[in-house]
Amino acid sequence: MIQAHPPTEALNKPVIELVDLHKIYRVGTELVHALRGVNLTIRENEYVAIMGPSGSGKSTMMNIFGCLDVPTEGEYRLGGHPVARLSQSQLARVRGEQIGFVFQSFELLPRMTALKNVELPLTYQRTGAGDLLKTLIAVPRRIGGAIVSLVPGGSGQVNGQSSDMNPRTMRATEALRRVNLLDRAHHRPNQLSGGQKQRVAVARALVQNPDILLADEPTGNLDSKTGEEIMDLFDQLHAEGQTVIIVTHEDAIAARCKRVIRLLDGEIVEDGPTARAAEAAKAKPVTPAPVTEGA
Ligand SMILES: Nc1ncnc2c1ncn2[C@@H]1O[C@H](COP(=O)(O)OP(=O)(O)OP(=O)(O)O)[C@@H](O)[C@H]1O
Ligand SMILES: [Mg+2]
User: Fold this and answer.
1) Which residues of 130-158 are buried (b: 16+ CB within 10 A; e: fewer)?
2) pLDDT tens for residues 142-174?
């Protein structure tokens, strides 16, 4: 039986809605039609894998979800609000507070401790530079090693084992706790394993309690066992109510999610529950449990 959503989340509020959405890139005189009329709804607490061959439009769609890019045609509604109608400052706030991004290559600042990396989105939030940081983090492949020097003041506070628990530090500490990495708070990225680095990146994405966690190939640089551990973490976040959207090339990773959307040449060619979601739906009682007498 094909259903559009896993049954348990089917009645939740939509967080992401794409309506006949197109994205066309212009490269010189050439047009690249990266998304071709995508219609899609993702609801609160869904656990979605996006799959498809290289170049099929997965990252383009994630960047639009994260308000890092805009569609050429069609509408994107985030939490029910058309994103195109947001002002620049509203957009900056949405990017900073509603969206958490995780990348294949972690994108941690090498000279900062895990804790300081997780604190960064909070550090730049009030100055407006948070938006700059998000952009830097979001386009790492184009910026590469220049990230560190572009983040103002980044290296000045690196070594400090600041003991003052200001609110930012407390929130970053809590985020590290959520990813089970408190014992590595004062390690720098080169003192962490790949899986631990990705945990720091997930903590950084979670530190503002975003509505949506977007992860573009989060296990792509990890061996399969470590990848499974990161998926254990995403499972836990999904169980806590987080909306999680993951791009992956790996069937085993997608199978851990509850819904799989497949893209081909910028179009959705398949959208349905995973075997795991179908199992979970079967295991649930069809009728509500009877009210206990005297309760
Ligand atoms: N900034 C850009 N300018 C021009 N074309 C782009 C740009 N970004 C992506 N494209 C093109 O859009 C199409 C979709 O790219 P996208 O990065 O979304 O693919 P993908 O599914 O994420 O692929 P991969 O699995 O390799 O990461 C590709 O043909 C790509 O070349
Ligand atoms: Mg991609």
Assistant:
1) bbebbebbbebeeeeeebeeebeebeeee
2) 333 333 222 333 333 333 444 557 899 999 999
Residue nearest to atom 26 of ligand 1 (CA): 54
Q: How far is the CA of 212 from the centre of ligand 1 (A)?
A: 22
* pLDDT tens-digit series, residues 172-217: 999 999 999 999 999 999 999 999 999 999 999 999 999 999 999 9
**By the 8 A CB rule, do 176 and 115 touch?**
yes
Query: ∠ at Cα 40 (218, 277), nearest 5°?
Result: 60
Q: Where in the chain is CATH 3.40.50.300?
A: 1-98+210-280
Closest to 42 (Cα-Cα) out of 285, 276, 268, 282: 268
Give the residues surrounding ligand 1 with Cβ less than 6 Å away: 25, 27, 32, 34, 52, 54-60
pTM of the complete model? 0.83
Q: How far is the CA of 248 from the centre of ligand 1 (A)?
A: 15
Mutate to test the pocket of ligand 1, among 60, 104, 139 (most ligand atoms within 8 A of CB): 60
- The residue type found at 130 is G
Q: Is 1-98+210-280 CATH 3.40.50.300? A: yes
